[in-house]
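Q: What would this complex look like in 3D?
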Amino acid sequence: MIKATTDKSAVALISGSGSNLQAIIDAIENKELKLTISAVISNVDNAKGLIRAEKAGISTSCIKHNEFSERINYDRMLLKEIEKYKPDYIILAGFMRILTPWFINQYHGLIINIHPSLLPKFPGLNTHQRAIDNNEKWHGCTVHIVTEDLDGGPPIIQAKVPVKINDNSSTLSSRVLKTEHQIYKKALQLLISGQLEYKNKNIWLSHEKLEKPLEIVF
Ligand code: GRF
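A: Here is my prediction, written as structure tokens for the whole assembly.
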């Protein structure tokens, strides 16, 4: 477990590379983010993010989704594992599973996700290719609160990057990913410090309702 000078803790859920997780771990180590990651849970046993977590001394576990025939049973097992750590937040860091409304309601307003598009544009998968195919001038990523509405919960902060004329989904995704690493830690610190709150289905920044997400242009 990496400890920070705060009482707030989180469990992170991953499925893959875990570069967002790494950026969060680095931000904690650099004291930019005052959070303790108590555990990292993956649904894929060879997720590289598990190795990153182990290197940082964080407890890891894997609950394989393909061992459950019903989504709800998976989510019940996931919750049981998470509750061992009694986290304040659940951080989705490239967790490639849709969570059931039942699960989301157990931690309503406390599950945070990063999505690689300027939501509400391009919820779901293949966002970079869809942005290119749609001739978007701008693309990016969004940190948002997870609600039952898939990729539709209130957005906190967005990073905007220009789509270049020669971009393909790989060049665009790697530029967007770098910005994900910048904004996820910022959004988390704003939440943890209490500057930013989620209440009455809206985001409030220093007690003022946020009419649109914070934005960083790269
Ligand atoms: C990121 O693009 C994130 O936005 C999406 O999945 C990807 C995960 O990347 N949800 P990583 O595992 O953090 O490297």
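A: To summarize the key features: Residues 141 and 149 are 17 Å apart (CA to CA). The chain is about 30% helix and 25% strand.
Q: Very helpful, thank you.
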